[in-house]
Amino acid sequence: MSLRSPLGRALGLGSAKAGTEHWWAQRVSAVALIPLTLWFLFSLLLLPNLGHETVRAWLQFPLSGFLAILLVAVLAYHSYLGATVIVEDYVHTEGLKILGLLSLQFLHVLVGGAGIFAILHVAFGS
Amino acid sequence: MSVRARPLSPHLDIYRWGIGMTLSIVHRATGVFLALGLPALTYWLVALASDAPTYARAMRLLLSPVGLVLLMGWTFSFFYHLLNGVRHLLWDVGLGFESSERRTSGWLAIAGALLSTAAVWMLLWQFKRL
């Protein structure tokens, strides 16, 4: 039985039918980021210095490069999910909202993609 | 279509302040600030993939006074968002809902974030890795 009024249904009001999935993805990426971010931070702290050669050599270890790629990917995804909710919460003009959500998608793929490409470049470069 | 203004339920300003309110909005604020740090991380990685002079320039920029303030802000935001995020995850599995528990864990998140940030930067300074 639906408790929604026929008028509300006709006007397309009510849930967007995608809330749980979004919420769940936010949690899964959050859990993944706990070890990934801490690994990244401690790795940098434990390096003898943060010079070009040292950091590159560290990132050229297969495990480091792999985890760094996972980190950037999950970070961009988690950031995208969070930023999306904020735009949905505060931007009420329909056109502006869609523009904002679209921009978030492009920017996150751009920034995440560039980061991953840079890591691959270091890992497979000489 | 004109919509008649409907009555709204009482909003934020009628409630007595509680630590949870501040923690909640700070969680969102640190999230936004951290999202702004993502391009900085990518910038650093791209510089790392470039030659040594480019990387040195990026490091000079990141370690400039403005860069340092931002990096410390990101460090604190990271630890706060992490610790408060863990609070949220614990609530999701049904733990720590009592009001005393919520207050305690809230203050713990703040104290933990401040202490961790101080520890990281003291380590960095101590060993002159900058």
What is the topology?
The complex is a heterodimer of chains A (126) and B (130).
Chain A: H1 6-10, H2 19-46, H3 52-59, H4 62-90, H5 94-124
Helix pairs in contact in A: 2-4, 4-5
Chain B: H1 19-49, H2 52-62, H3 65-92, H4 99-126
Assign an overall shape of chain B. extended
The number of helical elements of chain B comes to 4
Number of β-strand runs of chain B: 0
Number of strands of chain A: 0
Radius of gyration of chain A: 20 Å
Strand proportion of chain A? under 5%
Order of helices and strands of chain A: HHHHH
Helix content of chain A: over 70%
Order of SSEs of chain B: HHHH
List the uncertain runs of chain A: none
Structural class of chain A: mainly alpha
> Which residues of chain B sit in consecutive blocks of at least 5 with pLDDT less than 50?
none
Distance between the termini of chain B: 61 Å
- β-strand percent of chain B reads under 5%
What would a concise description of this structure say?
The complex is a heterodimer of chains A (126) and B (130). Chain A is an all-alpha fold and 126 residues long. Chain A has helices at 6-10, 19-46, 52-59, 62-90, 94-124.
